[in-house]
Design goal:
alpha+beta; elongated; 7-stranded antiparallel sheet; 515 residues
């Protein structure tokens, strides 16, 4: 079964079978007579693509050109199911549960003792194979294959079936969970690699084909368009997502297969679907090939993936928040906070700066900017165009190396004299030394602490919480209740009020407006 995340499903199919059973993904018969015929057809088709008279002809020629490069992938993970009477209840000292129990089973059964659920279950150890089915695309003549990490993750054996029915044992060269990209290698001759295109040149409405092994039916071709770009759907659990969205029919088993344009170039790697039924619903997602290629090159050349960082917290712009900075539009990335002594700090970035371009390319959103920085090699000098105080200027930042200790975002709640902003539904109090210690406020940090937020109020809907430290109102720094009152007196809730707050050591902007 495919793994589901909040209504989104990864597309690799999973089955369970007894050890020593037949390979589920290698039993499908291929129609190509031999490799040389496939190569000749692919070459001829690619030459004719430029003069294809209509879409039907273009689809046909594109499929002929690319199908020899598409493979079916079967991954096997060996699982040992222990005698249930040989273990104690989960959580007992030294006995964490059933070692090796597949997550797919644990989701349904939890850790209930197996003898209670299956009284007739054999009482001797038994081995099982957890089999995954997916797709991939050959991208180099020497046998490199692009696919999804979730197709081969944890696999003990990986077998690739080519379009001419050859079954080849594959080696996992490397994988990157953060982008769901994996790179395989097979040793074989006469392979037909597919050329990689430029996903940055895609536009909504462009025709694309999805090719793979949906539901185990190998060499399946479906057509559609690019429906949207820059999607984040959460299937990588905090990783780097910039998905292409397509209405080309893709289903479980399509994972890792190529999304191609009508030039026969790979522009994406099919990864996930949005579906309540688990099947095709007209919304599929693919990793842009430029992102996949960058990951593949690093895995091939360095054996691992490194990512850049600048050391700044960022957020998207709302229309009201942008206007509060005198900025027109919602595109760009707003700098919330700058880590001391980070590349961003050394470059002169400040909270409230809006990044409008990175390396000469427009910044659409905070996630796109984050992905672009991550894809930049450490030590690269990158140009940032920013908007500050009504003017645009250019800064240069030397990209650092992202590590596992990069700033983590968390949002826990926290609990004299008070000041009330009744129209917004919040009250504040002075920051005492005790409160500073409780909230982990840095030495020298000033502001007023939110002591109460009325449920359902504008402040509550805007995300303000008790324990947040307000450091500025409308761009005016506040260090005590008097300065807070004075700053609030200059604001009109109907026009909107911009707060800068500190929560768990991180700065953030919040914009509130009545009506």
């Amino acid at each position: 079964m495919s793994s589901a995340f909040r209504g989104f499903a990864l597309l690799g199919a999973v089955t369970l079978g007894a050890a020593g059973g037949s390979w589920a993904a290698t039993s499908f018969q291929q129609t190509q007579a031999n490799v040389s015929v496939a190569q000749e057809k692919a070459t001829a088709a690619r030459a004719a693509l430029s003069s294809a008279p209509d879409h039907s002809q273009a689809f046909k020629l594109t499929a002929q050109a690319v199908r020899p490069s598409v493979v079916s992938i079967s991954s096997v993970k060996k699982v040992r199911m222990l005698n249930p009477r040989m273990r104690q209840r989960p959580g007992a000292p030294g006995m964490p549960g059933i070692p090796g129990m597949p997550d797919e089973l644990r989701r349904f059964f939890g850790d209930e003792p197996f003898e209670r659920m299956f009284p007739q279950m054999p009482q001797t150890p038994e081995d099982f194979n957890q089999e995954g089915l997916g797709s991939g695309v050959i991208v180099t003549a020497d046998g490199l294959i692009l696919t999804n990490n979730h197709v081969v993750a944890g696999a003990d054996e990986v077998t690739v079936t080519t379009s001419d029915a050859r079954q080849l044992r594959a080696k996992i060269v490397g994988a990157d969970r953060a982008t769901d990209v994996a790179v395989l290698k097979v040793d074989a001759k006469d392979l037909v690699p597919a050329p990689l295109g430029n996903s940055d040149s895609l536009e909504v409405g462009d025709w694309v084909l999805a090719i793979g092994s949906p539901l185990g039916f190998s060499q399946t071709v479906t057509a559609g368009i690019i429906s949207a770009m820059g999607r984040q759907v959460g299937v990588t659990n905090g990783g780097y997502e910039d998905f292409l969205q397509t209405d080309a029919a893709i289903n479980p088993g399509n994972s890792g297969g190529p999304l191609v344009n009508l030039k026969g170039e790979v522009v994406g790697i099919n990864t996930a679907i949005a579906s309540r039924s688990g099947g095709f619903s007209g919304i599929g997602f693919a990793i842009p090939v430029n992102m996949a290629r960058s990951v593949m090159d690093q895995i091939r050349d360095n054996g691992k993936v490194t990512r850049g960082r600048i050391g700044a917290a960022i957020q998207d712009l709302s229309e009201d928040l942008a206007k509060s900075f005198g900025y027109s539009g919602r595109e760009g990335a707003l700098i919330d906070d700058v880590v001391p002594d980070s590349p961003a700090a050394k470059a002169g970035l400040k909270p409230g700066d809006i990044v409008t371009k990175y390396q000469g390319k427009p910044v659409r959103s905070s996630s796109q900017f984050r992905n672009a920085v991550a894809a930049t090699a450490p030590n690269t000098k990158a140009d940032l165009e920013i908007f500050r105080d009504g003017k645009k200027q250019t800064l240069q930042v030397k990209i650092g190396l992202l590590n596992d200790e990069e700033m983590a975002r968390s949002q826990p709640d926290a609990a004299g004299e008070e000041e009330s902003a009744e129209s917004l539904g919040l009250s504040v109090q002075p920051m005492t030394p005790d409160l500073a210690r409780q909230l982990g406020v840095k030495d020298g940090q000033t502001g007023v602490v939110i002591s109460g937020v009325e449920p359902g109020s504008l402040a509550a809907r805007g995300g303000l919480r008790p324990g947040d430290l307000i450091t500025s109102v409308g761009g005016q720094p506040v260090a005590n209740l008097k300065e807070f009152r004075d700053a609030m007196a200059k604001q009109k809730a109907s026009a909107g009020v911009r707060f800068q707050i500190v929560r768990e050591g991180s700065n953030r902007f919040v914009f509130l407006r009545t009506g």
